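Q: Can I see a sequence and its folded structure?
A: Here is a first one.
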Amino acid sequence: MIRNLKKGFSLILVLAAMIVFVACSIDTKYDESSMNIIEPAQVGQEISSPDVVVIDARDKDKYEKGHLKGAINLTAGELSENTPVKGMIAPKKTFERILSKNGINSGDKVYIYDDKNGIFASRIWWVFKYYGHDQVKVINQGARGLELQGLEMSADAPMVEKSKYKVASKNEDLLVKIDEVKAQVDNPQENVIILDTRTKAEFDEGAIPGAINYSHSNNCYKDGTFKSKQDIYLNYTDLGIDVEDEVYVYCKTSVRAAQTAALMQEAGFKNVKVYDGAWLEWQYKGMPSTGPTDMVVPTVQDAS
């Protein structure tokens, strides 16, 4: 009896050691090879470089109370317009004007943060990417991550010298338009997925027919850091999404959707597009939508 107890206890110890080993071997940090995400520690190492621009995407009041020293204030709203609905991507001339005013050059490395789990920072990231500025990343854990890193904060806005920013080319592959989404609704293709990143409550009130609902909030751990590439990959493949699928992501105005797009790309999903008009445009155009009686909500276990 005692021998069996000892064997059982030894087995428990072995299993516990294996769990600890596996947990320690999973890297939840984003390294220098990451396409879209940068860690606060790396920002601290690069902040003094003349070709690095850090954008604080929070509102003006928060920025003025304190921000990363040297960061400029640029909100997602400045890179948006409200035609035909709120929150559409700003035209090229507006993008060029805003970046020129803030002294940003086409060769600069741009790192962006907010305090909303990266949703506004990711929206700006997506706009930059769409207009061909590839050297742009979202800062993991945002303002809190920078503070925890012990980086210097300031209430003073930096002096910037205006630039003459010009867009060389657009990356049209990052955007999907309403006609393409409607075509998928009318004639569903197996390799095309419509992904609704709003909350379940929003989704239940109405959604694009055939859409899968998986809230953007599932992309973060409880401390506000982005989930690891592995966890992001597992979460979305559990939904039945393949890395080769064409994925149309949207929310209400495709701010939250941009965060999902950035992280899905990082996890290896190769063809993720943001439906810019999002739910507001879909409703405005009178497109068909699901209701409480005719929708099916897929479920997935949150890995956090």
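Q: Show me another, different protein.
A: A second, unrelated one:
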Amino acid sequence: MLEPAPADDWSIEDAAHLLNRAGFGGPPDTLREWHSLGRTAAVARLLKGPEAAGAPALPRWFDPDAYRTRITTQLEERRKLQASGEAEAREEARQLQRRHAMKDRQQATEAAGWWLDRLFTTPAPLVEKMTLFWHGHFATSIAKVKDPYLMLQQNELFRRHALGNVRALTREVVRDPAMMIYLDTHRSTRRHPNENFARELMELFTLGEGRYSEDDVMAAARAFTGLRINRPLGRAFFHRPSWDPGTKEFLGRSGRFQADDIVDILFAEEACAPFLARKIAAFFISDAPSDALVTAIAAEFRRHDFEVAPVLHTVFRSTEFYRPEYRRSRIKSPVQFVVQSRHALELDSLPRALQLGILQLLGQSLFQPPNVAGWDGGRAWITTHTLLARYNIAGYLVKGPASGFRPPLVHHRKAPAANNRDGRERLARQLARRAVADVAALAPPALRQDRHSLLAALELRLFQETLDETARRPFLEYLEQQGDGPPGPETVASLLHLMMSSPRYQLC
């Protein structure tokens, strides 16, 4: 099932498929570069791991010392105001809380913008793709956590373990403060064990439904008691008096289990490897992977003791991964749509406010999955509303305000210019100048002399393939309708819009 593909069977379409699924695509020059490496070297390069060079700097507020000072100050302010008992002090406390909440929202938006920049500029696309995978798998939302520092700390955790050991990552997720707040582990005590995390750990993170009993949930919840958060440090610690030291009966085992014991037992279960394999297969290969494919990937997980890198090494070098029926069979997620469109149109300076607005419009705001199960993905990405939005966004990226579309903007700070109508108009015009593709550079005059050459170049850029006559006909007919001479930049912009509004462009 996962036999290695022949070394000499490696086309530029294969390289594009690998880069689209294991990363976020790339412009034609990038595709040619990866193709020139050959399959073995291209996969090895993807699996090399994170590269610090070239990554955008973390937000300045993501600093342990600054965070400790801020949280300590907030806690002291709240304690003093609550202790006074005066109505004026209570109102002051509410005002402080509102100001802190506003700053948290601004920082959360800045963190999402920072990650988007990293997704586009990263020299290690597979690491970022897996970081996005883990964000959807161990879904945690700023809407409940309300602490951007902890969310970004979790994001860095996913990045460190992106290609590492799933068991080790799960152990750390147990003690991740953002996850602990999101699923209430920090409130769990020996007298009142909270079942939220224990249940989701089994149902959504490791085994799947029907693989455990309610007694197993309670036993695991008891094992997870005793975990607390040192808020000024942003770290978890073990508070022994809150831990339930009694014997737990869990999935047929018995013992005075603590958190790591539960994780180890789960990863020893027969159902764990297939559960993870199905999620990996659905993310990288097919929305509905076959049982045979899941079984093969599960065997790789067991063989490599749940190390991700060797599993993906086998998958990305296999004949199975490159089968024709898997190509362009998955609907691009909003993040994939935005980042891959930037690469295709070579939009190196797309404003964060615009990107974040687009993601919000399309239904995938980073750090805000809809629930603990993450985003549904697949066909759920496309509705009548979001499909029309994709068409409009494509038009804006190649035509700007001339497209007639006014994209939503999400700022990481309250911009004075955005506080009135004139200011918003001015800001939109400023952003538009940086948001429109340079059509003349994408299709220079020499390329526009021949319609078929132009279409072939744009097909590689947008679809990473040469279309057959039937698929190419609507685009060729559009060019023919514009007259006999070489198409101008405005015509090419409309052609790009037409191609990006096709069903084919929504797939990767």
